[in-house]
Amino acid sequence: MKLIESCSRGPKVLESPRGEIIKLFYKKRSWSSSGHLFPYAKRFQNNGKKLTQLGLIAPLSTKIQYCPDMKVHLVYYDKIPGETVFSLTKNPQSRNILFQVLSYIAQLHHYGINFRALHLSNVLVTPDRQFALIDISDLKMSRRPLSMYRRYRNLSHLLFYKNQDDRWRSLGLQDCLKSYIQASGLTGFQAWLLKFYFKKKIPMK
What we know:
Shape: globular
Largest sheet: 5 strands, antiparallel
Helix content: 25-40%
Strand order of the largest sheet: 1-2-3-5-4
Strand content: 15-25%
Order of helices and strands: EEEHEEEHHEEEEHHHH
Radius of gyration: 18 Å
Structural class: alpha+beta
Distance between the termini: 53 Å
């Protein structure tokens, strides 16, 4: 078994010899956490189903187990081949792919998807150059496109994420925001409102 990621409580992501991914969800210590009523492992499974129904690539859980001794849920799913955008963009010459990421995020927002764990290490590029989401337990879906404020919150999280914001700054934050607005088809008041939310973080010329 190969350790992919760990946390303070132990292994977090494992990979079996045949390429199956095992993701561990430890029980929250706080009893006020919503994870006690609706386990994050189940959210992960449900979100994978909903995303694939929309034609998007995401982990599809094949099995969920609970280990009472460790107080942890284990989610099994087939590995999605690809490389994270964070890894791909270490070379500054490869960073134009970030504009494609913004178009992808615009598509998610149009579908009403608020991926609250959005950062470059949670978006994969598959061998056929499609995007895929991973670590999808913290994701909300609505029947309507996201409001401008929710788009701002989600985009802001992406563009200013710790230790990743240098990639966006190297492209020019203004150009990144313009690219997202264009990909979203926002015009008039909607485009103005999104820029207004960003005006303190991205001064407009």
